[in-house]
């Protein structure tokens, strides 16, 4: 199975700053089938990005995804209070689908 | 708008079978158009994909759980279910059901989620 390693584990930032989250796969992800999810405490995950670069419906353009092959990035422009959460990447190009361990974006 | 809602017991005894159901509204499981999935999250931990089912297309199960896991569909009730056999306290988690965003390809991300249900396995 494909192992996804996210970095960093924790990202302390101030409101207004830019967040750059990394997701590295143990092997190339088929067709760049990578998704990013946001999860807040006590809530279900929310899909932000699919196909590595496409924003899900209703997701503001402050969120952007990039990358290909083994390396993928989620960028959050100008952090607002609603953006402090845990973010997970997932690959769904190979079975089984797998998640990264998560990156917590916290207030510095 | 598709909505999903998990239901089932919140407490299961070790060695028994954990059974959960996901009730779906706003979409028809029997259309065979989307994958329907289960994902779990142990307390304070990350997300773990358990498996998916496509009506008429079979199931995709996480190999780590394949020997204990069954996912099935009941089109008459528009719901799908999870059964996890021989549970241990390590199976204590919030269990989420989800539907893919679209039919295939890049749309096979989990676009719609239930709120999740916490299941505790007592030793």
- Shape annotation of chain B: globular
State the end-to-end distance of chain B. Answer: 40 Å
Q: What class would the helix/strand composition of chain A place it in?
A: mainly beta
Largest sheet entry of chain B: 7 strands, mixed
Please mark out the parts of chain B with pLDDT under 50 across 5 or more consecutive residues, or reply none: none
Query: What's the helix-strand series of chain A?
Result: EEEEEEEEEEE
Explain this structure to me?
The complex is a heterodimer of chains A (108) and B (123). Chain A is 0% helix and 49% strand. Chain A has strands at 4-7, 10-13, 19-25, 34-39, 46-50, 54-55, 63-68, 71-76, 86-91, 98-99, 103-107. In chain B, strand 4 (36-41) and strand 5 (47-54) form a beta hairpin. At the A-B interface, strand 4, strand 5 and strand 10 of A face strand 5 and strand 10 of B.
Structural features:
heterodimer, A: 108 residues, mainly beta, seven-stranded mixed sheet, four-stranded antiparallel sheet, 11 strands, 49% strand, B: 123 residues, 0% helix
